[in-house]
Amino acid sequence: MSTTNDRAKRQSIIEACLEMNRLGINQGTSGNISLRHEDGMLITPTSTPYDAMRPEQIVFMNLDGSFDAQQRPSSEWRFHRDILKARPEINAVVHAHPPHATILAIMGLEIPPIHYMIACAGGDTIRCARYATFGTEELSQHAVAALQGRSACLLAHHGMIAIGSSLSKAMWLAVEVEALARQYHGCLQIGTPPLLPKAEIENVRARMAGYGPDAE
Q1: β-pair partners for 94
Q2: CA-to-CA distance for 14 and 80, rounded, in angstroms?
Q3: Are 82 and 43 a contacting pair, CB within 8 Å?
Q4: pTM for this entry
Q5: Cβ partners under 8 Å of residue 49, min gap 6
Q6: What does the alpha-carbon distance between residue 38 and residue 61 come to, in Å, rounded to a whole number?
Q7: What is the pLDDT of residues 8-59, one digit of tens each?
Q8: Which residues are catalytic?
């Protein structure tokens, strides 16, 4: 039986899914969200409309990949699981297909330091992970590698991932990544944009410590 905390987490995932679509950073049921929970994770079920999703449909998975056979987790559960295993400081993973981030991902482009807010993703670039078929171990490996030292990445010919210590932080970062992608896409229509130096991004990162949702 679900505890109060368990049900609250499940409901927060549903609300975040609805918010993704409301904000236009995802379409339909193509995105997925997970939250660390006890010794495993809670993750969205596969192919379930967000507006019809119920808390009990959110799937609990152990970090060994096992789950109740009567439930069907998102087909992307592997990179959610592997990110949470590789990054103990991370508690939430948001995967979506925002229009501009996906355009760049299709072109295999990373987002360079066009704006100081790129520091929010942990470095001076937002990398683009190599392509692999959705739901595969290979894609999971590419995603974990692209997120090394970062809190967001693009997935070639696919979409984007944002991670955070909380769901609100991961959601906030997903919106920021799409804003940066839109800005970079716009710059490319004019020409090659000037970039901020790595040292300045590091300076901004230090000044932005604790910035964003849940900041104390």
Answers
A1: 33, 162
A2: 16
A3: no
A4: 0.94
A5: 28, 29
A6: 10
A7: 999 999 999 999 999 999 988 889 999 999 999 999 999 899 999 999 999 9
A8: 76
